[in-house]
Write a structure and sequence with these properties.
By secondary structure, this protein is α/β, with parallel strands linked by helices. The chain has 32 helices and 27 strands. The strands form 8 sheets. The chain has a 6-stranded parallel beta sheet. It has a 6-stranded mixed beta sheet with strand order 17-20-21-22-23-24, sandwiched between helices. A 4-stranded parallel beta sheet has the order 2-1-3-4. The chain is elongated and about 110 Å long.
Length: 857
């Protein structure tokens, strides 16, 4: 076996063993991890390795029990502290330290890490010590770096190989001899001419860079010996669009939906659970909650954003009843109880609860994998669960805090790698870093040419006294300055080995929208040119191509015109037997929208997003106020106290998000508004000498004039005398305009519903604005202390509704369905005009694309 080695080759290598032909035997290019794997196999030491997060978890109990310089950090983040101590210990072990107490800090570090599982340096040293008795099958080891620059642990293994028969060769790379700017940039002074051999692509965005580069590649005569450094999924999307070979670049495994199941399931144990996180769990493509149950629970959360609300329990029972088999139903019920049972009210999450939830998910996942068991995502999920279980057991902790759980999951997911967006295809060579290029290439594309991609040189963790003490015991640590120089030498490889073209890509803004700056190599090039010249000839938004790259500006096509009248077969649109205030509003504001929604059964679709906390306020006040009204004999002060008590006890089961940490200010505001609203409505009842007739009761009546049944659910119906009060969350000015313009269709419908027949006088109606406690009405006498708005009576609004309904149906019977928002002669605003009600369309509509209005906007 012949091995070519470079410290960067764990990130890939080019050209690899088949550089000189189509096949190779007994030759392999490796980095440190690959070499260690070969050596462990050769010496019989191969076995499963521990992820860094698990190694750190083993050390947590030591970090917490042994006193040392890390004490304060361990109290806050024992996992992070253990991980950092292991990093320091492994670095020093790599350099030859074996626990010598040259300072109190290093003595404590040796003590706390004494029982740590073997890390990378330990494994290299172990194979080096075992090499003498093993059959060495490595004929030659070619090093692309001087052996003196290898860390001592790696150098020890190389020396052991050499003693047992391996020929160790240090190889110097031969630079290419390009022309133009690419060749001239190696000299000083460098005078760029902008011939295209060396270019910095610097467009505005990451996606624009990907599109431009893919267009440039598609115009090459051949992709042979073209290498891309650090490709990502954005570039792969562009390559795919241009029908070029994709690189297999991936998205982080932690972004995969399957790996969200564990963190979301763990989050459900907090009391109260975050309803947004619950919704995300329910809407995952694969979830421990069956889809039939998940859809119902998601709808319940949209109405009442709280796990365990009445709506939630009803939806859960309805979903479970869809399963006819009693055993299946009980098994699912037990699973739902285990996931959504709220247990943890303190900041401490018991390890027993973590392990129970992992066991539940592990059982579910193994049952669901089936034919998909070979898919990497399912394997990654099982690995995530197993590693999390091991960490929970090894840590020795009885409980975790929320930050500790997040840290644990982050480190586990970080080790999971990535999933390819598109499978890797032959045609383009790829490597992860510039040092991975080890031979001349025709074209080199340095995709990730930004400052963030440069290797980070760690600052010296030791004091001068500690460094001196280590040197006295034979441990000589590399100087950060030397490491920086070596790194700068190695990232020169693309510049030295590109034969025809070197394209450096650094968009002005990255995928996250943050501003990006070129790699430090660009500063080195800038130092080689005359100050007056600069590198402006090399920096461009569009690449130069010597193969006649053409750009075609496609003619602008006009967008579809909005349609304001649709033709249908006469008589095809039929009346529905029953309408509500909302559906009547939809019909009168835009017949097209009404037909699409109520006859076509089309809706905007569900999203994994709940209403904002601000929108939840009015809904919560509304719900609690209706419950307070179930005891109408209270005084205003008693009602306010009742509302306050219900807010604390029942509020978390209606709008849990408002009761999570961080919402204290909104919660206090809602509580005060609720007291005000309760006091105001009970004072209105008392001073107006009303009694409560119904609270949120459904009323229905047959309307002979319309030929349909009208149904509605007024918030509060009073009697002695009859009156209606409808609760509204906000928008005081909007409601005032409704009353002033006679366009409050909802109040008019409610008034029509509770009068005995169409000849009976309309009862007075009013809005109670929940957040301000203000009552607004057009009736000057019915409601004490109400704000009187001058405007048409509800009876006039109802008559306008009837007239509009009849005219719209006459049009639809004739085969005309209007999209009112596109009508150039339509009403500019909601109004009661000439005895007919007009409602402004398009304010709450999901169908603007269907009617074409979206294109006009």
């Amino acid at each position: 076996m012949r091995i070519t080695f470079d410290p960067a080759f764990d990130q890939g290598s080019w050209p690899g063993p088949i550089a000189q032909g189509h096949a190779a035997s007994g030759e392999i290019w490796l980095g440190p991890s690959g070499l260690l794997s070969i050596l462990e196999t050769m010496t019989g030491l191969a076995g499963p390795t521990l992820p860094p997060a698990v190694r750190a978890a083993e050390l947590v109990s030591e970090v917490r029990s042994i006193k040392g310089f890390w004490k304060d950090s361990a109290q806050v983040d024992p996992f992070g502290t253990a991980r950092r101590l292991l990093e320091w210990r492994d670095f020093l072990w790599t350099q030859g330290w074996r626990g010598q107490p040259v300072s109190l800090r290093l003595e404590q570090l040796a003590e706390v890490t004494y029982k740590a599982s073997p890390g990378f340096p330990d494994r290299f040293l172990e194979v080096a010590g075992t090499m003498q008795g093993a059959a060495n099958v490595i004929e030659a080891l070619t090093l692309l770096v001087p052996v003196g620059r290898l860390n001592p642990a790696l150098r020890t293994a190389v020396q052991a190989l050499e003693r047992t028969g391996t020929k160790v060769i240090e190889k110097t790379l031969e630079p290419a001899s390009p022309k133009g700017d690419l060749g001239a940039c190696r000299t000083v002074p460098f005078r760029p001419i902008g011939d295209g051999s060396l270019q910095l692509l610097r467009p505005a965005t990451h996606s624009m860079a990907a599109h431009e580069l893919a267009a440039w590649l598609s115009n090459l005569e051949s992709l042979e010996r073209t290498v891309i450094i650090g490709p990502d999924s954005v570039l792969d999307e562009a390559l795919h669009r241009f029908d070029l070979p994709t690189t297999g670049a991936g998205i982080p495994a932690s972004d995969h939906a399957l790996l969200q199941i564990l963190p979301l399931t763990l989050a459900m144990a907090w009391d109260p659970p975050d309803p947004q996180r619950a919704l995300e769990l329910l809407m995952l493509p694969n979830s421990p909650v069956p889809k039939g149950i998940g859809r119902r629970l998601a709808h319940a959360l949209q109405d009442y954003p709280a796990v365990g609300s009445d709506a939630w329990n009803e939806a859960l029972e309805e979903g479970l009843n869809q399963f006819s088999d009693k055993k299946d139903r009980k098994r699912l019920k037990d699973r739902m109880d285990a996931i959504f049972a709220r247990r943890i009210q303190s900041r401490n999450y018991p390890v027993t609860e973590i392990k129970a939830r992992i066991d539940l998910l592990r059982s579910w996942a193994k049952g669901r994998m089936g034919e998909d068991a070979s898919e990497r995502a399912w394997q990654a999920l099982i690995a995530q669960l197993e590693n999390c279980m091991r960490i929970a057991e090894l840590s020795g902790l009885s409980h975790f805090t929320a930050p500790q759980i997040r840290r644990m999951l982050y480190e586990i997911n970080e080790a999971a790698g990535s999933f390819p967006l598109y499978e890797a295809q032959a045609g383009l060579e790829t490597v992860g870093a510039p040092e991975c290029i080890a031979e001349q290439a025709q074209n080199v594309i340095w995709w990730s040419f930004n400052r963030g991609a440069a290797p980070v040189i760690a600052s010296d963790m030791l004091t001068a006294k500690e460094r001196s003490g280590l040197e006295q015991v034979g441990v000589v640590l590399p100087r950060p300055g030397d490491e920086a120089v070596w790194a700068a030498e190695r990232w020169q490889r693309p510049l030295m080995l590109a034969g025809s073209n070197l394209i450096l890509v650094c968009a002005r803004r990255g995928p996250d929208g943050e501003e990006q700056y070129p790699h430090p190599l660009w500063d080195e090039l800038a130092g080689r040119v005359e100050e007056s010249t600069g590198l402006k000839e090399l920096e461009r938004e569009f690449l130069i191509s010597h193969n006649g790259l053409t750009r075609t500006i496609r003619p602008i096509r006009s967008l579809p015109e909005p349609v304001w009248e649709w033709g249908v077969i006469a008589g095809a649109v039929a009346k529905r037997p029953k309408e509500s205030p909302n559906s009547l509003s939809s019909l009168i504001s835009c017949p097209f929208s009404w037909v699409v929604r109520y006859l076509g059964n089309l809706y905007g679709g569900a999203t994994a997003t709940l209403d904002s906390p601000e929108k939840l306020q009015g809904r919560l006040i509304h719900e609690i106020l209706t419950r307070v009204l179930s005891n109408p004999g209270q005084t205003p002060e008693e009602a306010a106290d009742d509302a306050t008590l219900r807010f604390g006890s029942e509020g978390p089961l209606m709008a849990a998000q408002l009761f999570l940490p961080g919402y204290e200010d909104i919660r206090a505001e809602v509580k005060m508004a609720l007291r005000t609203a309760a006091h105001r409505v009970f004072r209105l009842i008392k001073e107006g000498r009303f009694t409560v007739r119904a609270v949120e009761q459904t009323y229905a009546t047959k309307s002979r004039s319309l030929g349909i049944e009208i149904e509605g659910r007024p918030d509060l119906v009073l009697k002695n005398p009859d009156a209606i009060v409808d609760f509204k969350r906000g928008g005081v000015n909007y409601r005032k305009e409704e009353l002033a313009g006679g366009t409050s269709l909802q109040l008019a419908v409610y008034g029509h519903l509770i009068r005995k027949n169409e000849k009976t006088t309309f009862p007075p109606v009013a809005y109670l604005m929940l957040k301000s406690g203000q009552v607004i009405t057009v009736d000057p006498k019915a409601f004490p202390d109400a704000r009187i708005i001058g405007g048409p009576s509800p009876e006039e609004t109802w008559k306008g509704t009837q007239e509009s309904f009849k005219r719209i149906w006459d049009e639809m019977k004739a085969g005309k369905v209007r999209a009112s928002g596109n009508d150039p002669d339509g009403p500019p605003k909601s109004q009661l005009d000439d005895g007919r009600l007009f409602l402004k369309p398009c304010e709450f509509c999901d169908f603007a694309v269907l009617c074409g209005r979206a294109f006009s906007e």
